[in-house]
């Protein structure tokens, strides 16, 4: 069975006049294995689309020259590009802006500032939908080829219909007259369709099918079948149908046929289950990629991505960004004395305690490495960071995890370093270095304490223990 596989040649075009957004999105998507092309204006995007077409476009709205709305309008008017899904990423949060984006043909809308997880989830969702559409078109083309051959010979038609694994029926439409309601009646049904309906083919032939008869399958199905005849356009839809004996998904396709319709029903339960498994697998794989296996909090890779994102946001908005670096005091002695299994349990307990002590949704806790942890606090001044650090240290003290080999306490303790900066450059490593320096001061001055980095490379926010 076919399942979606991310291909290395999957191409994504990012259109944004903000270099920070372009770089961040490129890093994220390149890291996920996608080929990324950038354009910093609407004109550049339209020029890029004259070459190899991308599989998906991330499009900013507010840009100099041709804005995102006009770019989308032109792409949807061009048969060559109209099928490319477009996800708008914009700082506009007005609902009417979103409505306009969808009316112009946008498939999705993400408001800045965005969360990395949201962008990744929506990109992958629309790539999967695009892949499914292509597969459905291939299947439709295949069916159309079969249907063309069926017209050539009634004998071949009967043979194929009876041997087809899909349920097939031909319904003639009888419009209402003299106050009698409109109905369909069946002129052909194969064994698969009859079995699905719980009847023999003979019992189903010439049965009158009224609006109410189809209600048990789906509301408005009778009217949708009638529109196929009125508009001479095919109709296809997936239905979930449940009885006492069976729960299943079906794909129902209705095709104009003479004065009625040809109905094709396929059991797609297995495909739907595959899609569900795929979705769950993608979520699991993503969580595995950004989660530390031992402590069940975010890992160093997730920390690097989030810190870079928040550093750029803080620089753009001229807001303070705080980083807390945390080290378990004398953890090697703990491991050597109690054993690695107890050490692992200690790391897990400390990590979960830190995470519970950090309250805001935007705050971020990660295992930085070994027995070291990090907390990122967006839009936080020094006083706020000290409050969080004190809360973390007090929570660890309250645990009273025995540590007989510690020369400073009978319990597990922490050394904590804090650095707070309003970014002025793109280099976020200076925040890590200064927080590390404050952590070094805390350890050098006796451990079980908190130190804050100031420009003079010294300073004490609090001393505990």
What does this molecule look like?
- With 465 residues, this protein is α/β, with parallel strands linked by helices.
- The protein has 16 helices and 17 strands.
- The chain has 3 domains: 11-127, Rossmann fold (3-Layer(aba) Sandwich); 153-271, Beta-Lactamase, CATH 3.30.450.20; 291-462, Alpha-Beta Plaits (2-Layer Sandwich).
- The chain has helices at 19-31, 42-48, 68-77, 95-103, 116-152, 154-163, 191-197, 201-204, 211-215, 221-231, 269-290, 300-317, 331-338, 340-357, 382-399, 429-444; strands at residues 11-15, 35-39, 56-59, 86-90, 108-111, 167-174, 183-189, 208-209, 235-242, 247-257, 260-267, 321-328, 364-369, 372-378, 414-421, 450-452, 460-462.
- The strands form 3 sheets. A 6-stranded antiparallel beta sheet has the order 8-7-6-11-10-9. It has a 6-stranded mixed beta sheet with strand order 13-14-12-15-16-17, with helices on both faces. The protein has a 5-stranded parallel beta sheet with strand order 2-1-3-4-5, with helices on both faces.
- Helix 2 packs parallel to helix 3 and helix 5 crosses helix 6.
